[in-house]
Amino acid sequence: QKEVEQDPGPLSVPEGAIVSLNCTYSNSAFQYFMWYRQYSRKGPELLMYTYSSGNKEDGRFTAQVDKSSKYISLFIRDSQPSDSATYLCAMRTGANSKLTFGKGITLSVRP
Amino acid sequence: EAGVTQSPTHLIKTRGQQATLRCSPISGHTSVYWYQQALGLGLQFLLWYDEGEERNRGNFPPRFSGRQFPNYSSELNVNALELEDSALYLCASSLGLAGADTQYFGPGTRLTVL
């Protein structure tokens, strides 16, 4: 079993839709949870960063963490064509600073 | 503020050769991380350097090595290149405070092994 599993894609939605992206993990030592967005031929950029269970909102983006179920989600409201990218969940323990990533899901928002 | 920079953008090598990839962190960042993003495998942790020392290493063979210089820039060396080393190599930097720091990524070096 991989440490981090991410819903496979690709995902295609119409503009304005609510998008839900999900990851599950098996290592209960993970304490810090991130979502990165990666455009084609670019490096990942940090979207959301949280370390506690619950919701964190930033504009159209909401990150949700459920440590008891070992489950994290990213919600995108009012999705735009510019949101078309690959979304990667990542997590880390407090100990050694390496990030463990999901495989990523490619999102396409149709105008 | 300048972000993480990497050079070269693209690198083409033949099997058995050596590749050297370079990374300059964000000013003020002391930690540098290297990741490999191969098709179908996702981002895999390679190496972590902080204050000039190797702090952690991923599950990669010893022919993947690197170093961090006094100015905190870093170099990744891949010896005896194999076809499966073809990937995007990403460098990230952070402030180096264990547990709470955020990693910021560069644009990557695309390595192609023929």
Fill in the keyword field for this structure.
heterodimer, A: 111 residues, mainly beta, six-stranded mixed beta sheet, five-stranded antiparallel beta sheet, 54% strand, globular, B: 114 residues, 0% helix
Specify the structural class of chain B. mainly beta
Please trace the helix and strand order of chain B, writing H or E for each element. EEEEEEEEEEE
**Tally of helical runs of chain A:** 0
Oligomeric state = heterodimer
The largest β sheet of chain B comes out as:
7 strands, mixed
SSE succession of chain A: EEEEEEEEEEE
Can you put this structure into words, describing what you see?
- The complex is a heterodimer of chains A (111) and B (114).
- Chain A has 111 residues and is an all-beta fold.
- Chain A contains no helices and eleven strands.
- Chain A has strands at residues 4-6, 11-14, 19-25, 32-38, 45-50, 54-58, 61-66, 71-76, 85-92, 100-101, 105-110.
- In chain A, strand 4 (32-38) and strand 5 form a beta hairpin.
- The N and C termini of chain A lie far apart (38 Å).
- By secondary structure, chain B is an all-beta fold.
- In chain B, the strands form two sheets. In chain B, strands 2, 4, 5, 6, 9, 10 and 11 form a seven-stranded mixed β-sheet that branches. In chain B, strands 1-3-8-7 form a four-stranded antiparallel β-sheet, with no helix packed on it.
- The A-B interface holds A 31-32, 34, 36, 41-46, 49, 88, 90, 94-104 and B 4, 31, 33, 35, 40-45, 48, 55-56, 58, 90, 92, 94, 98-108.
Short description:
The complex is a heterodimer of chains A (111) and B (114). With 111 residues, chain A is mainly β. Chain A has strands at 4-6, 11-14, 19-25, 32-38, 45-50, 54-58, 61-66, 71-76, 85-92, 100-101, 105-110.
